[in-house]
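Blinded run. Sample ID left blank on purpose so nobody reads anything into the name before looking at the predicted structure. Input follows.
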Amino acid sequence: MVSTQVLSKAASFVGALREHGVVRTLSVPTVRQSRRCQSGKAGTNLPVKHAMTSRSMNVVAASGNGATAPSAGLPIDLRGKKAFIAGVADDQGFGWAIAKQLAEAGAEISLGVWVPALNIFESSYRRGKFDANRKLANGSLLEFAHIYPMDAVFDTPEDVPPEIAENKRYAGNEGYTVSEAAEKLARDVGKIDILVHSLANGPEVQKPLLETSRRGYLAALSASSYSLISMLQRFGPLLNPGGAVISLTYLAGARVIPGYGGGMSSAKAALESDTKVLAFEAGRKWNVRVNTISAGPLGSRAAKAIGFIDDMIRYSYENAPIQKELSAYEIGSVAAFLCSPLASAVTGHVMYVDNGLNTMGLALDSKVLEREPVDASA
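Blinded prediction complete.
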């Protein structure tokens, strides 16, 4: 027989989940209902051991554009949440996948797109070239509330040099610095709940560190790591208490990846260190969480600039504990979790999503492991 104390604890747990927005509805039988089930006086033939499950759990999972679908278990529910994602330039990379998974959970998405890529992105979006990848689980298409031009290496208008301001790739766009993008978002959206940094660039990424110039090294850190600090400085005041900040890093920030040069490994190491410091500072200042996802290799357009991404994908497949290619949507799903109330106690964390490659200390496909066949007859 189920005790009153057990049922009371169950009810309290469900109440806490509702309070934090984790579930919409969840039915738990009362003591009286449970006793009726056990005694058979409630018109049920269920055995005693099933009394606690005699009423169905109605947990509603969110899908895009406000539609809902019933789902068992403990879904990620981000309905009513607003997200800003910086760094989406096409429908293939991690930024897009994160946007789509957040939308699947019910969040409203606004984007900051790198200025030189903005026209192509908006044109492809309008002309339906992304439609196949825009389709959500409920059949609707992923929509963006706002799309802003943004170049995260410039904090304020005064930081933009004339050669950039007059560049034809920037022509016709205004207000693309970090501070101006934040001002536009505050005007159009108001408060937000999720901030995603999906930015990285190293102009000398194909050069070994020993051949990297000071200018190239600092450019990598500016675009790939300091940009997170700049964004949090400007967008942090817009985040609601309990909000979440996510960035993307790579194993090269903690391990040596020959070929990932130009200061990019240093930029990723800085990003991971800054994540911990910002988790403390932003946590105390605004009550928000800051985490970074260390994603495995993906053959996105941006990654192809490295020059050996296909080799890294094959290497990961051969040596990771889970032997499969990584999907961008696996990173998007983990990002949705980290942005949800389910991760309310997770901050300052580097979350590896790489099929476990980061755990390996020996390459299984290394030639040094090859052995000559032993002649049993010798």
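Unblinding after everyone has recorded impressions. DSSP finds eleven helices and nine strands in the chain.
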